[in-house]
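Exercise: predict the fold of this chain.
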Amino acid sequence: MVTRSIGRHTIYCLSMYQSGASLNLWETSGRCDFQPVDSLRMKPDVLRGHLDALLLATLDGRRLHGYAIIEALQLRSGGALDLPTGTVYPALRRLERAGYVSSEWSTVSGRQRRTYHLTKSGQRALIQERTAWREFTAAIEGVLGEGPWPAQA
């Protein structure tokens, strides 16, 4: 529980996770306000350089239309990745031009939808992205982790 003082009032914050959305419950004078926890939403700068890998991983072994890709990213990230269509669709087109993703139009419930899937080249690129990600996170964990620092040579 976190408390905050505003003027003469002390308010209490209880963090909650409910139906896919992280919430802060602020209570003061019997009144509750729900506010999203901003720290759980990824900032655009954090995703820079990782969007292509995220899209490739989302399509790994699946055929999805654009909005289903956005929903899968939200679900898999626990709601932290809430990407707008204006970010996802241009990236999918870029991946298609690069030969990593292929698409075809289909009709679902009377609506035209473009469905995307990985190509062989996209599968190879995903393997490389996953390897690079493991190396990157190991290096960052070495600095940010709480383990002992290695002895200097």
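Check your answer against the key: The CA atoms of residues 8 and 28 lie 11 Å apart.
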